[in-house]
Amino acid sequence: MSLNREERYVVLIPGAEGTSGGLTGPLDPQCRFFPFDPSQPSPMERGIVRDWPALCAHWKQVYQRDLGISRRQGDHPVLLLVPSAWTKADVEIATKFFFEECNVPGFATCPAPVAALFGVNCVTGIVVEIGYDCIEVTPVVDAVPLKTAARLSPVGMVDVARAFLSHPDTDAATRAIPESTLAAATDLWSASLPTHIVPSTTLGDTPIPASLRTAPVDALLVALWSTVVSAVDGSDAAARISLLDAVVVTGPGASRIAHVRERLELDLRLVFPITSTLGETQPREVRFRDTPEYLEGYAGKTAGLAGYLGASLLARLVFPDAKAYVSRDEYETHGPGYVHTKPYGGISV
C-alpha cells in the first residue's frame, strides 16, 4: 500500500533539548520545536536515549496533542531522523512505539546527517552538528554515513553556559541566570574573528560585556575544528576532497553562536593546506553548503532547517513507494525488526 497524501507526512527529529518537526513542508517550513519537561532530566544525552519511557511519553504528547493527530484515524505516517549514536535496538523500540501507541499507517527512518545533506542538495559531505551537550561530526558518502569515521566531542552549548557562569568576570547577579536560559540564548554568544569587533549586549536587563560573549565559546571552538579534522583523518583518503566540498553546520549551537561557521572555516583553512601541488587526495577547498535560496522559507536557515527540509523531500519519495517504508501489515507480520530491511532502516544502524 502506498501513502500518497503528502499533507499527512510527519517528520520528527529527536535531540537533547526536545523534538523538532511537524508536518512536511518542502516549500514552506512547518517545523516546530517541542521541548522536554524542564523539571525532569532529559531522556536523551549526547545522542543516546537514557530513558525510553520518558521519550516515548514525550513523543506521544507531540504526535497526538501538539500536532493534533488522531490516533483513531491512523492516517499520518512518520519519518524519524535517527541520531548517529542509536543502535538497532533503539530503532526497533521507536518503530514499536509509533505503530502501537500512535497507530501510524507507515514508518520510515533516515540518519539525521543524511537528511541534513539532502537539505542542501548533496549526498556526500560532512555534517557538523553543534548540539546542546555535544558536537557530532559525521562524514557521509553517497548517502551512507561513515560510522567508523564519525566523531563526537562532549562539548556543547551547556558547556558554554557553564564556562560563562564560572568566568571570573561574571558578577553575582549574572550568576543567578539559569544555566538552561544561557544555553538557549540566541543573541548572546559570538565566535571571535580577527577582523570582527564583538559589541556588548544585554540578557534581559543584565548587561553582558563583549569579553563574556566570546571567552566562554573558546573551548567549544577548539573542540569544533579538532573534531572535524579527526573525522576527516578517519575517512578514506580518496573521499576527503569530496567530503570537504560539502560541509553542513547544523544544530542549536550553529544558530545561537554568531559567526561560528565563519570561525570554523577560518580554522579549517589553517589546518588543511589549500594548494594544487600536494597530490590528488589533498583537500584543496573547504566549501560550506546552505539550503537553497530559491526556497524563501528556508533561505539562511541551514542550521535549524536543513535536516527537516531533507526529510520533507525524502518523505515524498519514501511513502508513495511501498517497498521503502514499514507498513502496518508488515509490522504486524514481521515485527519491529523489519525496519532494518528498508533502504534507510539499514543505513541508520
What does this structure look like?
α3 (112-118) packs across α12 and α8 (218-233) packs across α11 (260-271). Helices cover 36% and strands 18% of the residues. The protein has 349 residues and is α/β, with parallel strands linked by helices. The two termini are 25 Å apart. It contains 14 helices and 17 strands. The protein is globular and about 60 Å long.
List the helices and strands and how they pair.
Elements lengths: L9 E5 L3 E6 L8 E4 L8 E2 L2 E2 L2 H15 L11 E5 L5 H14 L4 E6 H7 L6 E6 L4 E7 L2 E2 L5 E3 L3 H10 L5 H4 L3 H6 L4 E2 L10 E3 L2 E3 L1 H5 L3 H16 L6 H4 L3 E4 L1 H5 E2 L1 H12 L30 H17 L7 E2 H7 L8 H5 L2
Parallel strand pairs: 1-6, 6-7, 8-15, 12-16
Antiparallel strand pairs: 1-2, 2-3, 4-5, 7-17, 8-9, 9-10, 9-11, 13-14
Short description:
The protein has 349 residues and is α/β, with parallel strands linked by helices. Helix content is 36%, strand content 18%. It has 14 helices and 17 strands.
Oligomer: single chain
Whole-Å distance between the termini? 25 Å
SS summary, helix count: 14
Structural category is alpha/beta
Strand line-up of the largest beta sheet: 3-2-1-6-7-17
Helix residue percentage: 25-40%
Evaluate the radius of gyration: 21 Å
Beta strand %? 15-25%
Shape estimate: globular
Mean pLDDT: 89
Largest sheet: 6 strands, mixed
How many strands? 17
Residue stretches low in confidence (pLDDT < 50, at least 5 long) are: none
